[in-house]
C-alpha cells in the first residue's frame, strides 16, 4: 500500500517533499458566522468578530491538506474508475475551498504550494513566477501515473501575494483554476492578461483586489465570458460592510489597457465613503462587441444582428443573482449602476431606459450616442438615445456623462478630436430639459482612448455615490 502511494505521488522532481504536513488545517469560523463564497460574511449574520471580514482571514486558496486526502484515496483505489472519481472529488473540493493553487497552513514550517492542471492542458506545461525567476522551463507539471492529473509542488515564501502564470508552448497564461488575480502591468494595447496569485491575502490591504470568474455562462447569448469582481479595501474591513455595486462593460480591457482598478484604488483612498463593488464584464471575443453592445435595428445588411437585449438579459438574469449570492452587495436600483466607454457607454444608456427597475445609475464615457446611424456620422441617424431622453416618459435614473472635445470647441461628431462630443452634448441637453439628474464633464483635448477614460473614472465613481455633482467637482 505504501509503495503504491509513493508510486502515485512521489514523482521525481514533483513532490520532492512528500512528507505529510503535520500542522492541522486552520480552524473553521464559529458556527454563527455564515460566510460568502468569495470572502466575508453575510449582512444578516449578526455581530461579527473583528477578524471576520479581514483579508488575511477570508481571502485564500484551497488548503494543501486536500492533496493529502487525495493521496489517501488514491492509495485505496483499486480501479481506474475509482481513481478518476477520487480526482473528481478532489477538484470539486479545491474549487469549493478557494481554488488553485493549494497552499500549506501559514503556521507550517515550510511554505509548500501545489500547482495542478487536469487533462491534456497539463501536458508539457510549466509554472513560472517570482519564486523561480519567471523561468518558462524550470518548474514542470508532471503527470501522476495512470491519471490525467499533472502536479508540481514547490516552496514559495510568504513574502507577498506571489504572482504566477502557467506556461504552455512558450505562452504565459493565467491559471484558469485560480480565483485571485492581478493585472500583470503589461499594456498590450489589446485585451491584456492577469497573473494568478499564490497568497492573495497578502495583497496591499490599502488597495482593492480582483476575483476572477472564468467562463460565466450567458443563457440568452449562448456563450460564456470572464468576469472580474473588484472589491475595495473597505470591503475587507472589520465593519463587514455591504456595498453598492456597479457593472462595467469591456471588463478585460478596462483592467488591462489602463487599469481602472488602480484608478478606483486612488479614488476610494481619497473618498472611502464612495466605496463600491465593481463588476467588470469581459467579452468572450472582441468580434462580438458590435453585436452585443448595440440594439435593433441593424442599419445595414452587412452589420451583425444587434444582441444588446440578450446581453442585458445575461447581466440581469445570470450575473446579478450570482454576484448577490457571492458578495455583500446592496440590491435594488438605487444601489445598482451600469457603466461603460464608447459602445459600452451607449449600451449603458440603453440599459437605463430599458431597465430602470434594475439600474438606477448610468455612467457613459465618450458614449457612441449618435447610434443608430447608416454608416455616416450625422446623416439619417436619429441619435436614438437623444430621442429617447427627450421624448419618452422620464425614468427614475441618474446619469453621468463625460467625453472629450476639440480645444476650440465642439461642432460635430465627425471632426478630428471630437470624441463624439456633439451627440453627447445633445444628450445632456435633452436629459436636463426633462428634469433628469445629470453629472456632466467635458475634457477639451481628450481623445477617445482608455488613458482618458481612466483619468475621468474617479468622477464617474464619485457620481455613482453622490447625487450632487458639485460634490464630485462637476
TrEMBL record:
Keyword Signal recorded: yes
Presence of the UniProt keyword Transmembrane helix in the record: no
Species annotation: Corallococcus macrosporus DSM 14697
InterPro entries (UniProt xref): AB_hydrolase_fold (IPR029058), Esterase-like (IPR000801), Ig-like_fold (IPR013783), Ig_E-set (IPR014756), Mycobacterial_A85_antigen (IPR050583)
Record Pfam families: Esterase
Region (Disordered): 19-49
Signal peptide extent: 1-16
Gene3D superfamilies in the cross-refs: alpha/beta hydrolase (3.40.50.1820), Immunoglobulins (2.60.40.10)
Pro residues bias: start-end ranges: 23-32
UniProt keyword list: Signal
Protein name, per record: Hydrolase
Amino acid at each position: 500500500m505504501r509503495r503504491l502511494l509513493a508510486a502515485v505521488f512521489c514523482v521525481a522532481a514533483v513532490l520532492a517533499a512528500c512528507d505529510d504536513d503535520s500542522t492541522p488545517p486552520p480552524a473553521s469560523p464559529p458556527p454563527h458566522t455564515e460566510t460568502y463564497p468569495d470572502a466575508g460574511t453575510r449582512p444578516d449574520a449578526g455581530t461579527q468578530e473583528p477578524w471576520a471580514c479581514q483579508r488575511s482571514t477570508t481571502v485564500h486558496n484551497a488548503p494543501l491538506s486536500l492533496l493529502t486526502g487525495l493521496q489517501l484515496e488514491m492509495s485505496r483505489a483499486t480501479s481506474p474508475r475509482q481513481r478518476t472519481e477520487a480526482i473528481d472529488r478532489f477538484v470539486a473540493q479545491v474549487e469549493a475551498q478557494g481554488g488553485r493553487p493549494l497552499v500549506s497552513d501559514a503556521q507550517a514550517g515550510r511554505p509548500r504550494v501545489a500547482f495542478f492542471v487536469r487533462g491534456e492542458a497539463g501536458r508539457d506545461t510549466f509554472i513560472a513566477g517570482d519564486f523561480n525567476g519567471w523561468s518558462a522551463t524550470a518548474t514542470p507539471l508532471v503527470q501522476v501515473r495512470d491519471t490525467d492529473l499533472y502536479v508540481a509542488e514547490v516552496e514559495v515564501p510568504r513574502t507577498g501575494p506571489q504572482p504566477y502564470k502557467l506556461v504552455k508552448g512558450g505562452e504565459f497564461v493565467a491559471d484558469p483554476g485560480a480565483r485571485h488575480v492581478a493585472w500583470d502591468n503589461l499594456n498590450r494595447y489589446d485585451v491584456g492578461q492577469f497573473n494568478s496569485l499564490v497568497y492573495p491575502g497578502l495583497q496591499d490591504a490599502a488597495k482593492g483586489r480582483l476575483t476572477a470568474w472564468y467562463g460565466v455562462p450567458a443563457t440568452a447569448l449562448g456563450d460564456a465570458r470572464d468576469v472580474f469582481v473588484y472589491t475595495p479595501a473597505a470591503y475587507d474591513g472589520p465593519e463587514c460592510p455591504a456595498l453598492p455595486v456597479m457593472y462595467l462593460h469591456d471588463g478585460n480591457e478596462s483592467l488591462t489597457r489602463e487599469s481602472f482598478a488602480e484608478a478606483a484604488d486612488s479614488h476610494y483612498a481619497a473618498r472611502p465613503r464612495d466605496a463600491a463593488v465593481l463588476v467588470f464584464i469581459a467579452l468572450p471575443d472582441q468580434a462580438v462587441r458590435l453585436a452585443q453592445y448595440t440594439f435593433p435595428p441593424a442599419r445595414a445588411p452587412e452589420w451583425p444582428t444587434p444582441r444588446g437585449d440578450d446581453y442585458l438579459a445575461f447581466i440581469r438574469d445570470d450575473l446579478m443573482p450570482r454576484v448577490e449570492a457571492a458578495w455583500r452587495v446592496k440590491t435594488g436600483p438605487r444601489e445598482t449602476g451600469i457603466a461603460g466607454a464608447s459602445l459600452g457607454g451607449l449600451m449603458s444608456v440603453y440599459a437605463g431606459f430599458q431597465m430602470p427597475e434594475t439600474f438606477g445609475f448610468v455612467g457613459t464615457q465618450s458614449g457612441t450616442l449618435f447610434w443608430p446611424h447608416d454608416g455616416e456620422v450625422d446623416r439619417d441617424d436619429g441619435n436614438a438615445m437623444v430621442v429617447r431622453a427627450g421624448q419618452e416618459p422620464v425614468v427614475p435614473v441618474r446619469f453621468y456623462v463625460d467625453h472629450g472635445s476639440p480645444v476650440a470647441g465642439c461642432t460635430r461628431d465627425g471632426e478630428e478630436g471630437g470624441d463624439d462630443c456633439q451627440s453627447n452634448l445633445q444628450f445632456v441637453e435633452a436629459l436636463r430639459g426633462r428634469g433628469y439628474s445629470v453629472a456632466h464633464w467635458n475634457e477639451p483635448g481628450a481623445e477617445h482612448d482608455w488613458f482618458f477614460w481612466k483619468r475621468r473614472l474617479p468622477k464617474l465613481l464619485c457620481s455613482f455615490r453622490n447625487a450632487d455633482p458639485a460634490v464630485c467637482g462637476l
